[in-house]
Amino acid sequence: MPAASAxxxxxxxxxxxxxxxxxxxxxxxxxxRISRVPNGPAGLLGVMxxxxxxxxxxxxxxxxxxxxxxxxxxxxxxxRRDPPVGLAVDAVEALRAVGHDGAGPGDGRLLLDQxxxxxxxxxxxxxxxxFGGLRAPARAxxxxxxxxxxxxxxxxxxxxxxxxxxxxxxxxGAVAEVVNLPAVLTTLPRTEEVLLGVFPLRGAVLxxxxxxxLLGLPGRALAGTERVVVARIGRHRLALVVDxxxxxxxxxxxxxxxxxxxxxxxAGEARIDAVLRLADGRGLVSILSPERVLAxxxxxxxxxxxxxxxxxxxxxxxxAAGRERFLVIRLGGESYGLPIVAVDEVVRLPEALxxxxxxxxxxxxxxxxxxxxxxxxxxxxxxxxxGEEAAGGRVVIVTLGPLQAGFAVDGAAEILEVEAADLLPAxxxxxxxxRIFDRAARVARSGEVVLLIDPAALLNRAEAxxxxxxxxHSRAS
Length: 477
Description:
Oligomer: single chain
Shape: globular
């Protein structure tokens, strides 16, 4: 290869200047959004999305043995490899042509300029040694059935939320997703008070409706902390603004009955379809009828007024078979997704749990749920989450076959609906104990990547680790 064609990109990692053959560099990304991978190998900062691929981001400082590895990245150099990988660097300094020295652009080595002189680093060997679990993602992703576990098939599922201090719910099947209230709502002139404004979501304009006004409850100024429940009603989607999203509830059919007449008097007439009697005398939850919300004259007029090109817009909003819904769980500053079909329910973390003798620290105890005893696993410990535990934690109940467990998390109040095109295979970042994350979701509105948990792997690993630790403890004693 002619010497004139050899170029090197010089970057800085700590006190070391590193030269990379330009032919190995696909591009350089400025300050990308990186999603942390819990329990990943040391030096793996996380994953980022790049044009349809989820690629791991490795700290070049960490690769060189430094201890002061930043959590984020000023620049990421994307290397042409199979699989591709991003190198997090402190700065990009120069691109220079160099004379021929036996290392051409296709060479997989890095030239390190340090105080004790220059030396070569075999990048592929270093990556294999430090990150042996990084492998190319599987191209074929498993399909997710839309049927829940047989154990909960006879139960009804609801998304519960609060309005004016009262408990309400919608059938979970009617909920497309739950998102934060947009910072900006575009108001329209001469509209009903139930319309708070409109906002864009997934290429369409959705009307944001005040569920307080629809139900005749006392109004209040928006505080910015409200949540938006995007309800799928027929071929329409409506954004219903609620005060707070609480939990996902499942209940036996015999606990759900028709609403008494007094529930449907006044301005909220005929919106409440049924009532759910909570166990242990904890009160009632009013179940709203999505179809009756849509049938409200005010809602019908708003849809006609705000959608001049109704057929085309509503066609774009109709549910697509390729979409999947995920419950977004929050642990510290990170978010992860669980397929909604694998979630039995989400309940508040009890103030007290019954401890299990000789159980490992990550088992917080057991709780009783409708006659079932369920172990509660501290997912903060399992995912090595730093910082203080958030107030108002939740327990996500997951069942697969005979296995059932509750996973304690900081929060679980968002449902994300993802197009098939935005579901991406995740690179294999396992540490030999099983692969927890099988896919990733690209969230267009925020630009982030949400790693998606394989519930079977999560339960299997939790069960295997629990059995191993309990066995080891019993042998030691």
